[in-house]
Request: fold
Amino acid sequence: MNTDFDYVVAVEGLSALRGSLAEIPADVKRAAYQAVNRTTDRTRTAASRRMREQVAFPARYLDSTSNGRLQVTGRANADNLEARITGRHRATSLARFVTNGRVGNHQGVRVAVQPGFARMMRSAFLIRLRAGSANLDTKSNMGLAIRLKEGETIQNKKRVVQMGNLHLLYGVSVDQVFRSVANDVAPDAADFLEQEFLRLLEVKQ
Reply:
């Protein structure tokens, strides 16, 4: 079963001491969890920026504090020196990337998944979905669909959800794009975490 990808931020070395956190001096522990949380917020922002360079996700789609699809899902504290960033796993409807068109228009739609590049899909059209009718992350319950003629097939069946005689089209999930940039943001996150941890230790002294 697919699960969300969690990006874990922790102070190297201290994270191995979870079973004996009581033995770590309070000021060291405080500097550690504050550094982890600041690094996590910074890394989430950096990952969002890189993801939007690959896929035309609106910033608010990823970053909204109420329902953003790339969220800090766990924060460090005195009892846990780890924080987590999670990307939503639910597939993203291609309707979210439509730059023209209206419901029921069968003249085709223009879709821009990659920033700065749009593709005309002449056999696709927008439809309004009932809430919860498809396991897709949609925009205002909109779906991008095609109706196949007898004998027609779809090249990429991995990105299709069938609903009756219609096929809903979707693209990569936030989770998948997040995985693709995780290694890119890791070195900077590690450097910042180390520097911030040492800086906070000096402030406390």
